Amino acid sequence: MIIDYRSDTVTKPGKEMLEAMFSAPVGDDVFGEDPSINSLETLSAEMFGMENALFCPSGTMTNQIAIKCHTQPGDEVICDTSSHIYQYEGGGIASNSGASVKLLNGNRGRLTAAEVSGGINADDIHKARTTLVSLENTSNRGGGSCYEMEELKSIRKVCDEHNLILHLDGARLFNALVAKEQSAKEYGETFHSISICLSKSLGCPVGSLVIGTKDFISKARRVRKAFGGGMRQAGHLAAAGIYALKNNIDRLTIDHQHAQLLAEALRKKDFVGEVLPVETNIVIFSVKDIFTPVSLVAKMKEEGIYWYAISPTQVRIVTHLDVTPAMIQQTIDVIDSL
Ligand SMILES: *Cc1c(COP(=O)(O)O)cnc(C)c1O
User: Fold this and answer.
1) Range of the domain at 158
2) From atom 6 of ligand 1, which residue's Cα is the shortest distance away?
């Protein structure tokens, strides 16, 4: 048996999710006629107290659509250096939107209001026009770190003072909501647009949503078509999303507890250096002495346990829906034996 911790994207739909997908009513979504997609868009917008939402194939597409809608070529986007929109979206900010970036070095992927404020360009013809701030919660490279609501509100205040749009890459936002006991509606009030992934910790095979005002979503729908993301009878996929939003959010606490247990076992080992604080379902730790990240990952693979070397010094483990308590115990036993 393989225990796969490389990402929370490796989950496979279970019987109940598959049944929901199988029996979903569908139609042509480019004509706006897929009832399951329409329901998912309404459901997700309502969760965040926002006006509308758009179902897309990936979180890369929802982020890139948002950036395209919120900027003009030559504008500048403020984000953390480690952010997914900059590091892992194929240079899309430049190629899709012709926008420039101001990279800030936050604390485990999180920016403060003061840092954002300091990153805004002066109104000067030499400078790119700062128009958009994009935050990530939880932060992937920050080891699943979460924002405090107070900081997010302070950042929004800075944005309002400078006429900037505030976007959230919430690929793992539900992990943050559960870990911090925050309300989705408060996020809806704080951000102009929010991207969420159904394909990560919520366990769907495919799908992301971008959420915002009616006007923004109308614009986003045009951009999605131009990006080649218009889908037809994708209601079978949307049905998985509806199932996940109704059934797979509260259980994220289990994934978070599992991550804590693994981190605890790792901290006892001499070959483990710094373990980043574990706030949600991600454990990032540095490796030293008898192992390198690559040799440790290879050693674990021999035991049927898949980890991921994310840098020359660090390994990442992600817990998810398909990791059972028995698998966690088996993994801890292997860690103890190293
Ligand atoms: C996974 C992820 C995305 C989107 O990834 P896709 O694979 O395109 O769905 C966006 N942001 C963050 C932080 C992610 O971890």
Assistant:
1) 13-247
2) 59
